[in-house]
Amino acid sequence: MKTLDITQIKEYLPHRYPMLLVDRVLDWEAGKSMTAIKNVTANEEFFNGHFPHKPVMPGVLMIEALAQTAALLSFLTTGQKPDDKSVVYFIGIDGARFKRPVVPGDQLKMEVQILRNARGIWKYAAKGSVDGQLAVEAELMCTMRSATDASQPAGQ
């Protein structure tokens, strides 16, 4: 079993608080899959406005947490670390479904599998669950570009 703690995760993801949404990697296999967790706490910034009377993790942040897990798997698979010369773009979300709310005190368990990597486009099957109950699922796509080409649309 291969794991990563938060210090190791920060070596591969450029995100920082409050946008770093992966707390620990439980297991991963290069070129195949990763299982990671996000501990959802009551003092998350987004709960101040979403919603004060009934705090719920925004769906877009659940998708972002899955995308960060996918990016982490891609970096580990290729043996690359992000630098000032490259940008990772999130280029697609297909079939996103939200099955249950994620609330303070939950632990979002994220599972990502690489479906394919062709011509610099990575595609993943991703799902997140809480206590064994599916919370979110989607197919995600991303690509890596040089920072000098970052203004160009994906696929060019």
Spell out the blueprint of helices and strands.
Layout (H helix, E strand, L loop, with lengths): L5 H7 L11 E6 L3 E7 L19 H20 L7 E13 L8 E12 L2 E10 L2 E14 L10
Antiparallel strand pairs: 1-2, 2-4, 3-6, 4-5, 5-6
EC number: 4.2.1.59
Pfam families: FabA (PF07977)
Organism: Undibacterium arcticum
Brief summary:
The chain is 17% helix and 40% strand. With 156 residues, the chain is α+β, with helices and mostly antiparallel strands.
Rg, Å, rounded: 15 Å
Spatial order of the strands forming the largest sheet: 1-2-4-5-6-3
Q: What is the number of domains?
A: 1
Which structural class do the helices and strands define?
alpha+beta
Backbone shape:
globular
Mean pLDDT: 92
CATH superfamily: Hotdog Thioesterase
CATH names the topology as: Thiol Ester Dehydrase, Chain A
The CA-CA distance between the termini, in Å, is 38 Å
Order of secondary-structure elements: HEEHEEEE
CATH class designation: Alpha Beta
Organism: Undibacterium arcticum
Family: Belongs to the thioester dehydratase family. FabZ subfamily.
Keywords: Cytoplasm, Lipid A biosynthesis, Lipid biosynthesis, Lipid metabolism, Lyase
Function: Involved in unsaturated fatty acids biosynthesis. Catalyzes the dehydration of short chain beta-hydroxyacyl-ACPs and long chain saturated and unsaturated beta-hydroxyacyl-ACPs.
Structural commentary:
This protein is of the alpha+beta class and 156 residues long. The protein has a single domain (6-149), classed as Hotdog Thioesterase (Thiol Ester Dehydrase, Chain A, Roll). The protein has helices at residues 6-12, 59-78; strands spanning 24-29, 33-39, 86-98, 107-118, 121-130, 133-146. It has a six-stranded antiparallel sheet with strand order 1-2-4-5-6-3, with helices on one face. It is globular, with a radius of gyration of 15 Å. The termini are far apart. The mean pLDDT is 92.
